[in-house]
Design a protein that fits this description.
mainly beta; Diaminopimelate Epimerase, Chain A, domain 1; globular; binds ligand LBFN2T5F
């Protein structure tokens, strides 16, 4: 997988190809992009189009369906669908015929590159289920590392499965993940409600080396980052999260003012997080309305993080700042999060949309 050659199909009027009968789609065929020598010109672009055949085909969706993009199986190509959940974007790969991902972490990192690849926050594989589940979801972050779970990703995963299996309307799936059993349910309105399971608060399981309280949790503890003490609460949703509402003795955070790219990596790689961490910076508007920005482990600043929004509500409840049912605003839009008292499970509801269909040579 050196130069990028891609065929893409863009749904023009709706994210859900099969649910429409009269919408149109464009497809463009093989774009070939090669690297230019760095000194080629003072304002040299880093890519040049060396051979382009760009054709606009507009075809009715019904005509396209039997020979669906998703049914393509040409050897030597990776066929994918790009999805996003509130701008947290993923390359979805149909991997139902094998229990190992079709591509390596290094290949995934190349595909995620926003300049030299397709561009995404991660690559998600739909694999056969194990232990009585319907499917297994695995994911590589854009740096090639493999997280245990992805909240926005599992909503995209559910919509991807529905499309692969040609399912309409309400459907739920049992999905095996690195965080255990996760159950997304596609609702009538197309949004996906996910039973995200129980939060993990035990410090050694998050994992964090920060000193724990008597109940082994880390709630509102001081974390020194470059000489500034931040109050943090650590929550695992299968993957680790460090949630902060501000610095010790400081005002309520104004998250838009944060220099996320400077501070984010310092949290991510802090010595107290042996598995690195995702970090959420949170502003409280009301006890049921929060706003967050996230710096993700292995992906940097993203427009949304589903597991992060769940961790934020857990932290806000534990710190006495919010109720159990909250709207969490993220840069890409809002998520509805509920931490149910009766079963300790967290439920996340939000959208998942197709961006385009594509193929790349492997
Ligand atoms: N964006 C995701 C989380 C993806 C994994 C994360 N970067 C990690 O390494 O834990 C979400 O929506 O939850």
């Amino acid at each position: 997988m050196g130069a990028i050659a891609a065929a893409i199909s863009l749904p023009l009027t709706s994210p859900t190809r099969r649910s429409l009968t009269a919408s149109l789609r464009t497809s463009c065929t093989i774009l070939k992009l090669n690297s230019l020598p760095a000194a080629a010109s003072p304002r040299a672009p880093t890519l040049r189009v060396s051979a382009v055949s760009f054709s606009m085909n507009v075809e009715a969706v019904e005509k396209a369906s039997p020979d669906s993009f998703l049914d393509r199986r040409e050897a030597g190509f990776l066929h994918f669908v790009k999805y996003h959940g509130l701008g947290n974007d993923f390359i979805l790969v149909d991997n139902r015929d094998s229990s190992e991902p079709k591509i390596s972490p290094e290949q995934a990192a190349k595909l995620c590159d926003r300049n030299f690849g397709i561009g995404a926050d991660g690559v998600i594989f739909a694999l056969p289920g194990i232990n009585g589940t319907d499917y297994t979801m695995r994911i590589y972050n854009s740096d090639g590392s493999e997280p245990e779970m992805c909240g926005n990703g599992v909503r995209c995963f559910a919509r991807f499965i529905a499309e692969l299996e040609n399912l309409q309307g309400r459907h739920s799936f049992k999905v095996h993940t690195g965080a255990g059993l996760i159950i997304p349910e596609i609702q009538e309105d197309g949004k996906v409600k996910v039973d995200m399971g129980e939060p993990i608060l035990k410090a050694s399981d998050v994992p964090t080396k920060l000193p724990a309280n008597k109940d082994q949790s880390v709630v509102k503890s001081g974390l020194d980052v470059d000489g500034v003490t931040w109050n943090v609460t650590c929550v695992s949703m299968g993957n680790p999260h460090c949630v902060t509402f501000g610095t010790e003795g400081g005002q309520n955070l104004k998250v838009d003012e944060l220099k996320l790219a400077d501070i984010g990596p310092k949290f991510e790689n802090h010595e107290v997080f042996p598995a690195r961490t995702n970090t959420e910076f949170v502003q409280v508007f009301t006890p049921s309305h929060l706003k967050m920005r996230v710096w993700e482990r292995g992906a940097g600043a993203t427009l949304a993080c589903g597991t992060g929004a769940c961790a934020v509500v857990v932290a806000a409840v534990l710190e006495g700042r919010a109720e159990r049912n909250c709207t969490v605003d993220l840069p890409g839009g809002p998520l509805q999060i509920e931490w149910k008292e009766e079963n300790n499970h967290i439920y996340m509801t939000g959208p998942a949309e197709v961006v385009f269909y594509g193929s790349v040579p492997l």
